[in-house]
Specification:
The chain is an alpha+beta fold. Helix content is about 30%, strand content about 30%. The chain is built from four helices and seven strands. It starts with 7 loop residues before the first strand and ends with a strand. This is Crystallin.
Length: about 120
Amino acid sequence: MSTGQVATTTLWRPTGPAELELVRELGWRAWPPRLPQQPIFYPVLNEDYAVRIARDWNVKHDGAGYVTRFEVDTEFLARYPVQQAGGETILELWVPAEELAEFNAHIVGTIEVVHEFR
């Protein structure tokens, strides 16, 4: 029996202040289009990995780093194989830039900031 609820997967995204401001402008419901030098949008599958990127990379390059958390329709995510970008816990999804609008349409709820580093 269906309850009408969509099964979701929790994803995290380390981000800098400029991208976070664009997310805010989009009502915390979507990620902004990629820049020409950003062919892939890559959310990550665990919070610890997102924290490391936000703290160790975004702070150094942008002066601040944030970790966001959001839910995406699990069935939709099945089209993106998990990519291991390093060690066992360095797991990402690689969403081609041209598919980001469709990806955004499958976000359930809002994008929330769960950590901030300066």
